[in-house]
């Protein structure tokens, strides 16, 4: 098959979105309540990694980067994820805390987008979560200098074994380079696929303690 043929085939991949619409009556006053309902439905639908979200940050030149991380907690203060504080994303956020999250629930004909600002979590909050993780994941956090260049996988594996030995007993200390962020919600958009590409989109924008809600054209 030539490159041109395979391109033609991709161009014809399409499906109708028929899982039902999103109407004004379905909306909640606060976006988090609707988010909670959709997240519960994503879990019930047994999507792989329903809490996986694409996180976008920008570097100093304005170049956007994206990667998946797992949502670990949320409440009216924002959405929380954990990561390495020496990672590329952490460097971006030090320089520019503006951030965007995307939940790709397209198996349900849905997506949710968030724009906001990332704030570092307190050590206490990070420590509580860190110690709730399986021991091997805690050791994994110690092993990886996330986003740095390494010459071979073997380096990670031997360091893992070395640290497993070292931390055989007692609590594994929280690495100083491991932490998390809370993303405040300034805007949240809910997208539900509709027939004939007439999708439903609603944008919540924070206005003090309440929310302005607008329908957007698909
Ligand atoms: C399903 C999935 C879940 C992930 N969860 C996390 C996570 O919770 N935290 C994290 O730091 N990286 C997570 N990663 C790895 C990130 O996508 C990324 O490779 C890493 O954070 C380094 O990104 P950076 O170099 O842009 O900082 C996950 C990857 C996948 C595919």
TrEMBL record:
<feature type="binding site">
    <location>
        <begin position="67"/>
        <end position="72"/>
    </location>
    <ligand>
        <name>FMN</name>
    </ligand>
</feature>
<keyword id="KW-0288">FMN</keyword>
<feature type="binding site">
    <location>
        <begin position="146"/>
        <end position="147"/>
    </location>
    <ligand>
        <name>FMN</name>
    </ligand>
</feature>
<keyword id="KW-0664">Pyridoxine biosynthesis</keyword>
<dbReference type="InterPro" id="IPR019740">
    <property type="entry name" value="Pyridox_Oxase_CS"/>
</dbReference>
<feature type="binding site">
    <location>
        <begin position="82"/>
        <end position="83"/>
    </location>
    <ligand>
        <name>FMN</name>
    </ligand>
</feature>
<keyword id="KW-0560">Oxidoreductase</keyword>
<feature type="binding site">
    <location>
        <position position="111"/>
    </location>
    <ligand>
        <name>FMN</name>
    </ligand>
</feature>
<feature type="binding site">
    <location>
        <position position="89"/>
    </location>
    <ligand>
        <name>FMN</name>
    </ligand>
</feature>
<comment type="pathway">
    <text>Cofactor metabolism; pyridoxal 5'-phosphate salvage; pyridoxal 5'-phosphate from pyridoxamine 5'-phosphate: step 1/1.</text>
</comment>
<dbReference type="InterPro" id="IPR000659">
    <property type="entry name" value="Pyridox_Oxase"/>
</dbReference>
<dbReference type="InterPro" id="IPR012349">
    <property type="entry name" value="Split_barrel_FMN-bd"/>
</dbReference>
<dbReference type="InterPro" id="IPR019576">
    <property type="entry name" value="Pyridoxamine_oxidase_dimer_C"/>
</dbReference>
<comment type="pathway">
    <text>Cofactor metabolism; pyridoxal 5'-phosphate salvage; pyridoxal 5'-phosphate from pyridoxine 5'-phosphate: step 1/1.</text>
</comment>
<comment type="similarity">
    <text>Belongs to the pyridoxamine 5'-phosphate oxidase family.</text>
</comment>
<feature type="binding site">
    <location>
        <position position="191"/>
    </location>
    <ligand>
        <name>FMN</name>
    </ligand>
</feature>
<feature type="binding site">
    <location>
        <position position="201"/>
    </location>
    <ligand>
        <name>FMN</name>
    </ligand>
</feature>
<feature type="binding site">
    <location>
        <position position="129"/>
    </location>
    <ligand>
        <name>substrate</name>
    </ligand>
</feature>
<dbReference type="Pfam" id="PF01243">
    <property type="entry name" value="PNPOx_N"/>
</dbReference>
<keyword id="KW-0285">Flavoprotein</keyword>
<feature type="binding site">
    <location>
        <position position="72"/>
    </location>
    <ligand>
        <name>substrate</name>
    </ligand>
</feature>
<feature type="binding site">
    <location>
        <position position="88"/>
    </location>
    <ligand>
        <name>FMN</name>
    </ligand>
</feature>
<dbReference type="Pfam" id="PF10590">
    <property type="entry name" value="PNP_phzG_C"/>
</dbReference>
<comment type="function">
    <text>Catalyzes the oxidation of either pyridoxine 5'-phosphate (PNP) or pyridoxamine 5'-phosphate (PMP) into pyridoxal 5'-phosphate (PLP).</text>
</comment>
<comment type="subunit">
    <text>Homodimer.</text>
</comment>
<protein>
    <recommendedName>
        <fullName>Pyridoxine/pyridoxamine 5'-phosphate oxidase</fullName>
        <ecNumber>1.4.3.5</ecNumber>
    </recommendedName>
</protein>
<feature type="binding site">
    <location>
        <position position="137"/>
    </location>
    <ligand>
        <name>substrate</name>
    </ligand>
</feature>
<feature type="domain" description="Pyridoxine 5'-phosphate oxidase dimerisation C-terminal">
    <location>
        <begin position="178"/>
        <end position="218"/>
    </location>
</feature>
<feature type="binding site">
    <location>
        <begin position="197"/>
        <end position="199"/>
    </location>
    <ligand>
        <name>substrate</name>
    </ligand>
</feature>
<feature type="domain" description="Pyridoxamine 5'-phosphate oxidase N-terminal">
    <location>
        <begin position="40"/>
        <end position="165"/>
    </location>
</feature>
<feature type="binding site">
    <location>
        <position position="133"/>
    </location>
    <ligand>
        <name>substrate</name>
    </ligand>
</feature>
<dbReference type="GO" id="GO:0004733">
    <property type="term" value="F:pyridoxamine phosphate oxidase activity"/>
</dbReference>
<dbReference type="InterPro" id="IPR011576">
    <property type="entry name" value="Pyridox_Oxase_N"/>
</dbReference>
């Amino acid at each position: 098959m030539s490159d041109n043929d395979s391109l033609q085939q991709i161009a014809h991949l399409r499906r109708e979105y028929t899982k039902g619409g999103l109407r004004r009556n379905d909306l909640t006053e606060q976006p988090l309540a609707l988010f909670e309902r959709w997240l519960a439905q994503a879990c019930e639908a047994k999507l792989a990694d329903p809490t996986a979200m694409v996180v976008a940050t920008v570097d100093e030149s304005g170049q956007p980067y994206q990667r998946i991380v797992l949502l670990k907690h949320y409440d009216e203060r924002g959405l929380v994820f954990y990561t390495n504080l020496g990672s590329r994303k952490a460097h971006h956020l030090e320089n520019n805390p503006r951030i965007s999250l995307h939940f790709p629930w397209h198996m349900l004909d849905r997506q949710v987008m968030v724009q906001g600002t990332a704030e570092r979590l307190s050590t206490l909050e990070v420590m509580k979560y860190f110690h709730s993780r399986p021991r091997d994941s805690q050791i994994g956090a110690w092993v990886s200098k996330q986003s740095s260049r390494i010459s071979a996988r073997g380096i990670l594996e031997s360091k893992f074994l070395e640290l497993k030995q070292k931390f055989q007993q007692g609590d594994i200390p929280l690495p100083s380079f491991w932490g998390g962020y809370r993303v405040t919600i300034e805007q949240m958009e809910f997208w539900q696929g509709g027939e004939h590409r007439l999708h439903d989109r609603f944008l919540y924008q924070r206005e003090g303690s309440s929310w302005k809600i607008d329908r957007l054209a698909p």
